[in-house]
Write a structure and sequence with these properties.
mainly beta, AOC barrel-like, 2 helices
């Protein structure tokens, strides 16, 4: 009887660990530019980013495809004579970890604040985790992606077309067991 009670307790603890929210803090850097994939959103341009980084879930690469408004929008947090604000209307991405596990995300909300005087942008995106493979098969959460973007290359007209970026992904994730997380951290 004691063995059955012990096994039931261990099973309950294992299930609780699977669904427990775990804080994540990951840093990344990479590049971005015009996307080959067109998300077909009216009044937007398409951007593709390729990132690599490390953090609480292990080493990863992250590919993001976005549709961002082409006309500046009104903002209470990004305003001034040298400030432009653009809203993300469609966004999705896949994080690939060294163990081959994938974590899929979609845009919940996002925006880019462009500072013309500083020649950089501050971007913030809230993602919804929509599942994954391997250790992220049952994952869920809403991490926040923040980055600083600076131009690297301009076209013949002086318009920036290729960018360097770096930032963080922070928040919580559920559906990844502690044992699987520790195997992914290097």
């Amino acid at each position: 009887m004691k063995q059955i009670a012990t096994m039931a307790l261990m099973l309950n603890l294992g299930i609780a660990a699977l669904y427990a929210q775990r804080p994540i803090n990951m840093t990344f850097s990479g590049t971005g530019g015009a996307a080959v994939i067109n998300l077909q959103q009216p009044g937007t341009s398409n951007v593709e980013e390729s990132e690599a980084g490390n953090g609480t879930l292990g080493q990863f690469t992250f590919r993001i495809i976005s549709a961002i408004t082409t006309s500046p929008q009104a903002s209470s947090t990004c305003s001034g004579p040298n400030q432009l604000y653009f809203v993300g209307v469609a966004d999705g991405g896949v994080l690939r970890f060294q163990d081959g596990s994938l974590l899929k995300v979609n845009l919940t909300q996002g925006a880019d604040g462009l500072d013309l005087a500083a020649q950089q942008a501050q971007c913030t995106i809230t993602f919804q985790i929509i599942g994954g493979t391997g250790r992220f098969k049952s994952a869920s959460g809403n991490p926040t992606y923040t980055e600083t973007v600076v131009p690297v290359l301009a076209d013949a007209f002086g318009n920036p077309v290729f960018f360097a970026d770096s930032g963080q992904i922070q928040g919580t994730v559920s559906g990844v067991t502690a044992e699987e997380e520790s195997q992914a951290a290097f």
